[in-house]
Structures are given as structure tokens and as C-alpha cells.
Amino acid sequence: MRESDVEKVRRASAHPDRPGEVCRADAGVWKVAVDVHRCEGKGDCVVVCPYQVFEVGPIDEGVYASLPMLTRLKLWVHGKKTAHLPRADACKACGLCVVACPEGAVSLSAP
Ligand code: SF4
Ligand code: SF4
């Protein structure tokens, strides 16, 4: 892990607003979600998640087409990438992604 990534994890771990159960939840019980209107696809969530829940990749074209023009423009500027959740069922509610996301795009819901 790069030094800047270690610092991101350290900052998120110490964040006073970190939600969740600090990795003590059963996997997949809490629900993690990404707001595509906010996500800029830069991947801080990928860096901090201990369970590889996230991947950054191209946004689905159908979803992209359904978004408001300004949101589409923002996504286009960022290469039309967004965060996906291929392993959402591995989430143990550590909460790091929520406080690490600079766009406030990640939410974590209790069961
Ligand atoms: S969800 Fe947040 S941290 Fe993850 S790629 Fe999108 S903007 Fe970046
Ligand atoms: S709360 Fe976020 S960072 Fe933590 S395990 Fe779940 S998806 Fe990964």
C-alpha cells in the first residue's frame, strides 16, 4: 500500500463520525450503497475497505443516460467511472468507506 493510501486509512479510522460496528457485524448484514449522483470514481473507498467490497469501473450506460445533465457532465469529466459493489455481501460495517469518501457518496444502513 502506498504511503498516501496508508494515510487515508489512518484518517478514516480516526474519524469521529465513522458509522457502523468497526468490523464486528456479520458479513452482509449492514447495507452499503453508493450514490451515483455524487460519486466521482476516484477510489478512496477501494483503498480503505478491508474486504474488497468496491471496484471502480465504467458506469452502466443506461444508468448514465437516466441522470440529470449536470451529473452526466461531471461523470464525463471523470471518465464516466463510478464505484461498484461486487462484494457487498462481504461488508462487515467497519464504516471506513463512509468517512473516507470525499464526495459523501457512500452510505451504510443498519439492519
Ligand atoms: S464512492 Fe466516494 S470514495 Fe468511492 S469512488 Fe466514489 S467518490 Fe470515490
Ligand atoms: S463499511 Fe465500507 S469499508 Fe467497511 S467493510 Fe463495509 S464496504 Fe468495506
Write up this protein:
- The protein is α+β, with helices and mostly antiparallel strands.
- The protein has one domain (3-109): Alpha-Beta Plaits (2-Layer Sandwich), CATH 3.30.70.20.
- The radius of gyration is 14 Å and the shape is globular.
- The strands form 2 sheets. The protein has a two-stranded antiparallel sheet with strand order 1-4. Strands 2-3 form a two-stranded antiparallel ribbon.
- The protein has 5 helices and 4 strands.
- The model has no long low-confidence stretch (mean pLDDT 96).
- The chain has helices spanning 3-14, 44-48, 61-66, 69-77, 96-100; strands spanning 31-34, 55-58, 81-84, 106-109.
- The termini are far apart.
- Residues 34, 39-45, 56, 83, 101, 103, 105-106 line the site of one iron/sulfur cluster.
- One iron/sulfur cluster binds at residues 34, 39-45, 56, 83, 101, 103, 105-106.
